[in-house]
Amino acid sequence: MVFHHSLSFITSMALKCAVDLGIPDAIHLHGGSATLVDIVAGTGLHESRLPYVKRLMNVLSSPAFLLHSIHSPVPPDLPTKPATAVRP
After folding, report:
1. Number of domains in the chain
2. Is the pLDDT score of 6 beyond 70?
3. What torsion, rounded to 10 degrees, do the Cα atoms 2, 63, 28, 14 define?
4. d(CA 21, CA 1)
5. What DSSP state is assigned to residue 83?
6. What is the pLDDT of residues 49-88, one digit of tens each?
7. What CA–CA distances, in Å, run from 62 to 25, 32, 46, 53, 59?
8. Contact 87, 37 (CB under 8 A)
9. pLDDT per residue over 16-54, tens digit each?
10. What CATH code is carried by the domain that includes residue 23?
11. Whole-number Cα distances in Å, 56 to 29, 50, 74, 76, 85
12. pTM listed for this prediction
């Protein structure tokens, strides 16, 4: 529990970093869902930064800021969203 609280700032810093890099705009320009390559190209970052963007997106997806696409059959009562939808 102490570990969780001591590193909880990482999620907010990752979100700030994503916004500063223009990742939400890059995703929006690709119609609401984008691959990592699309995101890197849309932000104007050099392609060598792809592993770092992947890590950033992993940090953001772990606390469920981003909803993942579900590729398996889904019960009708479970809503599905694109992988880039941000939770309120």
Report:
1. 1
2. yes
3. 20
4. 31
5. T
6. 999 999 999 888 875 555 554 444 444 544 444 455 444 4
7. 21, 19, 25, 14, 5
8. no
9. 999 999 999 999 998 888 889 999 999 999 999 999 999
10. 1.10.10.10
11. 19, 10, 28, 32, 16
12. 0.64
